[in-house]
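User: Reviewer 2 asked us to show a designed sequence for the structure in our supplementary figure. I'm pasting the structure tokens here. Could you produce the per-position amino acids so we can include them in the response letter?
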């Protein structure tokens, strides 16, 4: 009571595009005011609540705000265990009491009763919950098993797949065989995957731990998806790009001779462990590349996340990505495509420069083009990322753009900050926008 279940729940539902069910409100709509139901006795109310929860759990995947006493019912707890990811919103008793005092809630009339109730329920909440959270971002992160900490304990039989450079800088204190991968993008090849299929000795009860940037988590996740028909994996991202984007969302894969990420699988990691301290050794260019994804995320979410202290910035971006992924886990609804804001132009510039323009620089320019086509201010991109026109061949970039979009002319634009749309852009406008990014 007073933890903010209705507010946070509605927000999480909005960010994940799922229906929101406020169980108490649903009960009141069908059976009348809860205070009156309580007067007929709590057991009677709990039975109604059990029925309504069963109904909500049987419906489409949704976000459900439970009443504060719902988890007291063993039947409800069993159903939650079987059918839900349950989060305990713990804001502390002082905050909770401040919010509910003076309300008409039947169980919140006197402070000492409220405190007793809170204490008596504490343990049941902790036992029932799959995660503890304070706000919507916590809920989104917990739902995709993203946590902020150092990696300390060994997760059982494991194999570490690490970027060879990162393995030297940030060795994991985990007792497990270490398999070194080429640093960066060079690891995303079939040859590396084949080598790992042969080298790995863990069984199906083993876990692959990926230590490195997006290249490492992409290839290690793909190995985890395919080795022995799939084993669980844990991502430990060590670049800013990895922490705000690449390690979250279950997309794994490698490059083929025909292009980037052309072979892969959806295979969600069982945990993503983010330790922002490892970024201390990140080269400036990699940081800039990560900041391009941060600015992209801020524009998509409509929040100037780049103004936050680093750890909060990473947390906010990771949570935004988690929300979009949860709204469209296997990219069937189109919402995951939002994450390509600026990327259609970026990929074109990368190809049109023979891959001499780095991804981060290309994304910064791509965001500029997307904002211009959207009629939105470009100052955030210009001030934070300071993009310079690219040394690229315009015709080659245009040809790549047309190939990338398979001739459909589909782009992600912003109706306003925080409101992405997938839409078409006439060729002439798209080409002019691209031309404005290339040094003439
Ligand atoms: N799966 C996804 O959803 C997704 C999303 C975005 C990007 N990606 C992929 O991620 C890849 C790019 O990954 P990236 O940008 O994270 O970089 P990266 O993994 O390619 O690494 C870049 C360089 O940084 C070094 N490095 C990594 N961590 C370091 C640290 N803590 N200190 C010092 N050096 C460090 C590496 O050795 C490497 O040389 C691309 O292949 C891209 O396709 C995937
Ligand atoms: Zn990118």
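Assistant: Here is a per-position design you can include in the supplement:
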């Amino acid at each position: 009571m007073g933890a903010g279940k209705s507010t946070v729940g509605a927000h999480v539902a909005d960010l994940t595009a799922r229906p929101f069910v406020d169980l108490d409100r649903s009960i009141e709509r069908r059976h009348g005011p809860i205070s009156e139901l309580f007067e007929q006795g709590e057991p009677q109310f709990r039975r109604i609540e059990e029925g309504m929860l069963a109904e909500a759990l049987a419906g489409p995947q949704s976000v459900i705000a439970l009443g504060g006493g719902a988890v007291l019912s063993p039947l409800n707890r069993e159903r939650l265990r079987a059918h839900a990811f349950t989060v305990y919103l713990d804001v502390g008793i002082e905050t909770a009491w401040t919010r509910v005092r003076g309300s008409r809630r039947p169980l919140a009339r006197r402070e000492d009763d409220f405190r007793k109730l809170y204490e008596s329920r504490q343990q049941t909440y902790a036992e029932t919950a799959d995660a503890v959270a304070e706000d919507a971002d916590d809920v989104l992160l917990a739902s995709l098993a993203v946590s902020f900490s150092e990696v300390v304990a060994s997760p059982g039989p494991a194999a570490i797949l690490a970027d060879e450079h990162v393995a030297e800088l940030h060795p994991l204190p985990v007792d497990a065989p270490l398999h070194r991968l080429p640093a960066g993008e060079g690891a995303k090849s079939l040859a590396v995957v084949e080598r790992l299929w042969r080298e790995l000795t863990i069984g199906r009860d083993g876990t692959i731990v990926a230590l490195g940037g997006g290249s490492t988590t992409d290839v290690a996740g793909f190995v985890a998806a395919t080795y022995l028909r799939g084993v669980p994996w844990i991502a430990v991202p060590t670049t800013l790009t990895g922490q705000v984007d690449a390690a979250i969302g279950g997309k794994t894969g490698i490059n083929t001779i025909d292009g980037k990420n052309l072979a892969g699988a959806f295979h969600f990691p069982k945990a993503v462990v983010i330790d922002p301290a490892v970024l201390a050794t990140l080269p400036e260019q990699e940081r800039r590349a990560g900041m391009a994804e941060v600015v992209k995320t801020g524009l998509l979410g409509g929040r100037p996340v780049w103004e936050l202290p680093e750890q909060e910035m990473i947390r906010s971006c990771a949570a935004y990505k988690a929300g979009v992924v949860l709204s469209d886990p296997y990219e069937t609804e189109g919402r995951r495509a939002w994450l390509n804001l600026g990327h259609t132009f970026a990929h074109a510039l990368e190809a049109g420069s023979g891959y001499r323009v780095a991804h981060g620089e290309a994304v910064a320019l791509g965001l500029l083009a997307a904002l211009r086509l959207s009629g939105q201010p470009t100052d955030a991109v210009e001030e934070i990322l300071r993009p310079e026109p690219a040394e690229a061949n315009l015709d080659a970039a245009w040809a790549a753009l047309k190939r990338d979009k398979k001739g459909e002319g589909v782009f992600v634009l912003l109706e306003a900050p925080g409101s992405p749309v997938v839409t078409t852009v006439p060729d002439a406008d798209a080409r002019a926008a691209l031309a404005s990014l290339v040094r003439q």
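For the response letter, you might also mention the following. The radius of gyration is 24 Å. Residues 296 and 341 are 7 Å apart (CA to CA).
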